[in-house]
Each structure stands twice: as structure tokens, then as C-alpha cells.
Design goal:
By secondary structure, the protein is an alpha/beta fold. The protein has 11 helices and 9 strands. Keywords: Membrane, Oxidoreductase, Transmembrane, Transmembrane helix.
């Protein structure tokens, strides 16, 4: 087990007052060891990661379950203590807590610490960090030119299921992981974070944070909202007559409401634009149904969508987000 430092007193909660001990082997801390965090731990073990995996979370029982499953090697009571002995911290908490967790890790970690996350929204997290003044770490938070050791990321993997009991070691194999580095991103941190996600089996793609949020509003956030709306329209009696179409369209409606409320609110502007596009497409289909006697317009819209769906291939082993 790794010997952990004591928690800092409240008066020094955002200042590093002493050098951190050298860690011979890589130490990764996972903050939030649920489905995603647990799958990261299991994926690292599957890939032959030779370091130590620390777990931080609010629920001691969850951490105990994560250790029992082998997703972490050691549970740590606070992020400050874990960050102080870590080489890399990956934050897997809900999106409305990620910025604060990243700032805390940077405030208490060693100089070489790299931090990444798995949040489904990027621009809001980076904006919150800028407001906190913590993106460059505690020693240089007042230096606008200082390199940032936080590399925002989003692995496109997940499930409607929650909890470490549903974690799987192959969840990230073959999946795209979007990185959103900026001109001030520290090159060493970017290199190590890139290697980290690659080790889990991800294919890396770099995007601007706003472009990430635009695309994900269409491909993930809007589908979750539509799934919930459709499932809410179907009564228990109607479900007796539901089959494959209902199953496929509403699977993600079973996801956690609080988690998804935070995601949708954090990406509200892009989601509103995606909703407008969706409404416009529905209006076009509806109007085309009234286009008698010709069916040309409806068939054009339908076949255009069908071809786009056929052009999309998806075959990694994990379940889609």
C-alpha cells in the first residue's frame, strides 16, 4: 500500500507547502469509481498496467466494492491525499463536480501531475476552471501563460447502467476518446494523458471544446432526451405491444436522471440547437406525408436517413454511450 500524507489543514487547502515524495512506479487516482471509473481501473489491469490504482469517492461501500472487483488497489478517503502521491488523476464524477475535482487535484498534486476527465461536456468544465483560476495549478495560477496540466477528455463509451458492479475491462476497446487540448496545454501532460487513454484501447481524436459539445449534443445528448420523451409516452399497457423498435430507441431512457440533468444543463445551448434541428426534420417528414399523391419527398427524406445509418459502423465490444 502507498503511504499517504495527512490531509492539509483548512488554511492551506489550496497551497502545496512541502515537496511531495518521489513515486517510483506510476500511480493513477480514479475519482468516482462507478461504471466509467471502475471500467478504467479494470481496463488498466487488463492492459497490464504495472503501477498502483487509487480510488477516491463519496461512498465507502462503493470503494470497497471497487477494490473487491479489482478496479482499484487502495481506497483513499480524500482527493487531496490521493493527488499528493499520484502521477495522473482521472476524474469520473458527474459533470457539475468535475471542475472542482480537477482544481483540487491540481492544488495538492506534485509538479509533474497530469489530470484528465471523462465528462460528456467540455466547454462548461473548462470555463468553470478558468473562473476558478486553477487550470495552471497552484504555483502559477496568476500566470496566464503557464502551461495547464489538465487535459480534458471524453471517452465515447458507457451504458444506461450505473455502478462499479457493471464496470467491464473492455468498455473502452476501439472507442473514440476526444481530447480538447488548448494552446496552453502542457506537452508532457498531453503526452501522458494520450498514452493513458491509448492504453485503455481508445482511438484519440482532438477537437475544439465547443465543437465537441456541438457534435455530442446531436449524437448523445439529444438521443438521451428523445429516448426519455418516447418512453414517457408509452403507458404500461402499451408496453405489452412493444418490441424491437421500442427497445432500441428507449434503452438509454433507463439512465440516471440526476447525471443526465447535469449533462444536459451544462450543454444547454448546443442541445437547444440540436432540438431545433430535430424538430425541423420531424416537421419535414410530417409535411411530406401530406404531399399527395406523390411520395417522392417523403422517400427522399427517409432514404437519405437510411443511407446515413447504413454508412455508420459500430462494433467495439462495450455498450454505446
Amino acid at each position: 500500500m502507498i503511504e499517504l500524507p495527512s490531509d492539509p489543514p483548512p488554511s492551506t487547502a489550496t497551497a502545496q507547502t512541502a515537496p511531495q515524495p518521489h513515486i517510483a512506479a506510476p500511480v493513477v487516482t480514479i475519482v468516482g469509481v462507478g461504471l466509467i471509473g471502475g471500467s478504467i481501473g479494470l481496463g488498466l489491469k487488463r492492459a497490464g498496467w504495472r503501477g498502483t490504482i487509487l480510488g477516491v469517492g463519496r461512498d465507502p461501500q462503493c470503494l470497497q466494492n471497487a477494490r473487491r472487483r479489482g478496479a482499484i488497489d487502495q481506497a483513499v478517503p480524500t482527493l487531496a491525499r490521493a493527488a499528493a502521491v499520484s502521477d495522473l488523476v482521472v476524474v469520473c464524477t458527474p459533470v457539475d463536480r468535475i471542475a472542482a475535482n480537477v482544481a483540487e487535484a491540481l492544488a495538492h498534486g506534485p509538479d509533474h501531475l497530469a489530470v484528465t476527465d471523462a465528462g460528456s461536456v467540455k466547454a462548461a468544465i473548462l470555463r468553470d476552471l478558468r473562473l476558478m483560476g486553477e487550470t495552471a495549478g497552484p504555483r502559477s495560477r496568476n500566470d496566464a501563460s503557464a502551461p495547464s496540466r489538465f487535459v480534458a477528455a471524453h471517452p465515447l463509451a458507457g451504458s444506461e447502467l450505473a455502478g462499479v458492479e457493471h464496470a467491464r475491462d473492455d468498455l473502452f476497446l476501439g472507442r473514440v476518446c476526444v481530447l480538447t487540448p488548448s494552446p496552453v496545454t502542457d506537452p508532457d501532460a498531453l503526452e501522458r494523458v494520450s498514452a493513458f487513454w491509448t492504453t485503455l484501447g481508445c482511438r484519440l481524436v482532438s477537437l475544439d471544446p465547443e465543437e465537441h459539445d456541438r457534435v455530442l449534443a446531436l449524437t448523445s445528448h439529444l438521443p438521451h432526451l428523445i429516448a426519455s420523451a418516447l418512453a414517457g409516452c408509452i403507458t404500461p399497457r402499451d408496453q405489452d405491444f412493444a418490441a424491437g423498435a421500442y427497445r432500441d430507441l428507449t434503452r438509454v431512457a433507463a439512465a440516471d436522471a440526476g447525471l443526465w440533468r447535469a449533462i444536459l444543463q451544462a450543454n444547454r445551448a448546443a442541445l437547444d440547437r440540436a432540438l431545433d434541428l430535430f424538430r425541423a426534420r420531424l416537421d419535414q417528414l410530417r409535411a411530406a406525408l401530406d404531399d399527395h399523391p406523390s411520395a417522392t419527398r417523403f422517400e427522399h427524406l427517409w432514404n437519405e436517413a437510411a443511407q446515413r445509418r447504413r454508412d455508420w459502423t459500430f462494433d467495439p465490444p462495450g455498450q454505446p454511450d
